[in-house]
Amino acid sequence: MTLFLIGGAIGIQVFAFFHYIDRTNRVLNNFLESIRYSDFTRTFQVEGEGSSFEKLKNSFNEVIKDFQEVRAEKEENYYYLQTVIQHIGIALIAFQKDGKVELINNATKKLFQVRNLTNIEALRSFSPEMVEKLFKIGHGENTLIKVQEKDNLLQLIIYATEFTIHNRKITLVSIKNIQQELEEKEMESWQKLIRVLTHEIMNSITPISSLSSTVTLIIKDLCENLKDSGATEDDIESLEEVESALKTIHKRTDGLLHFVNTYRDLTKIPNPNFSIFKISHLFDNIKHLFEEELKAKNIDCEVRIEPETLELSADEQLIEQVIINLIKNAIHAVEGRENAKIQLLSNMNSRGKTIIQVVDNGPGILPNVLERIFIPFFTTKPQGSGIGLSLSRQILRLHGGTINAYSEPDHETKFTLTF
């Protein structure tokens, strides 16, 4: 009986021992699976099963808690970086060597007018040249791409960097449209040049004009005195020739002074006085101004605003002056052509900006000329000063906008003001 009882007790102890080991292994297995599958929502209940077992479960709970904190911190950092990337105003694209896109931000979607981008090959419709550059660009390189849209000109600067994640080679490029910055720098350079030239020319021409006028009066008085004193005709004729030459000099110097003062206007544009006004009101004033001239030259003028209640925040007088200048150019372009037509259009473009367009069906502008029409002093008109379009660009720059030209020879020419 004693042996039987001792044997039974030993059997129970062995069973309890193996059960304890199995339960410990199951708890340990659950803990390791939580780590393997990143499931940190699991907890281990402490139910008074012995001090060592309770300490083990407490240790597991503490480890899982630490993992939860690390994961929460990583998620916070991830969402923080995502927010920064999406908020930044420069377009960012991360893609693999085969063109598969890993990441884009909102600025990229806005720049290329896409909702989603899975492969940069999809950007070929935007610019085939840009896609080729993206595939070829190397680490630390940068390049400039010019993209001519129908209503806009983009100067895109691209900077690239490369890195490797999980054996995947990723190229990260930043793309920024610097067209407005280039125009501002160009205009600032022209303004500095004009200020220097006008200053030097004025300093030189003003005394010449004054002296020529004074000498002309002296010669005139001398001619009259010689006539009264009975001088020969040859002497009087010689003095009259000198007087005529001085008058020519004086006339040309006055003309040059007027010419210089005209170009000084580029550096004296007043700051815009912003107000909100309806574009329909602006167009009505301009159409009324040219109504008689358009009718006399048999030119049709179409006005279209979508929506009709579209408003603009700008200096109405300055913008009116820009449009008047563009319409004068359009009238000159279509004058004498059959079915001559000028359009005044306004709407919201695909980028959500307000645009005003002046379109004519004249002979158009040649590509080599189109690139230079906004340069000060450049003109194709015999009597032109080359200041109108330069002044218009300066006015738009002060409004934070742009003016661009698009032309199809013998079809249409379109000037677009973007605000």
From TrEMBL:
<dbReference type="InterPro" id="IPR003594">
    <property type="entry name" value="HATPase_dom"/>
</dbReference>
<feature type="domain" description="Histidine kinase">
    <location>
        <begin position="196"/>
        <end position="419"/>
    </location>
</feature>
<dbReference type="InterPro" id="IPR004358">
    <property type="entry name" value="Sig_transdc_His_kin-like_C"/>
</dbReference>
<keyword id="KW-0808">Transferase</keyword>
<dbReference type="InterPro" id="IPR036890">
    <property type="entry name" value="HATPase_C_sf"/>
</dbReference>
<keyword id="KW-0547">Nucleotide-binding</keyword>
<dbReference type="GO" id="GO:0005524">
    <property type="term" value="F:ATP binding"/>
</dbReference>
<dbReference type="Pfam" id="PF02518">
    <property type="entry name" value="HATPase_c"/>
</dbReference>
<keyword id="KW-0418">Kinase</keyword>
<dbReference type="GO" id="GO:0000160">
    <property type="term" value="P:phosphorelay signal transduction system"/>
</dbReference>
<keyword id="KW-0902">Two-component regulatory system</keyword>
<dbReference type="InterPro" id="IPR005467">
    <property type="entry name" value="His_kinase_dom"/>
</dbReference>
<protein>
    <recommendedName>
        <fullName>histidine kinase</fullName>
        <ecNumber>2.7.13.3</ecNumber>
    </recommendedName>
</protein>
<keyword id="KW-0067">ATP-binding</keyword>
<dbReference type="GO" id="GO:0004673">
    <property type="term" value="F:protein histidine kinase activity"/>
</dbReference>
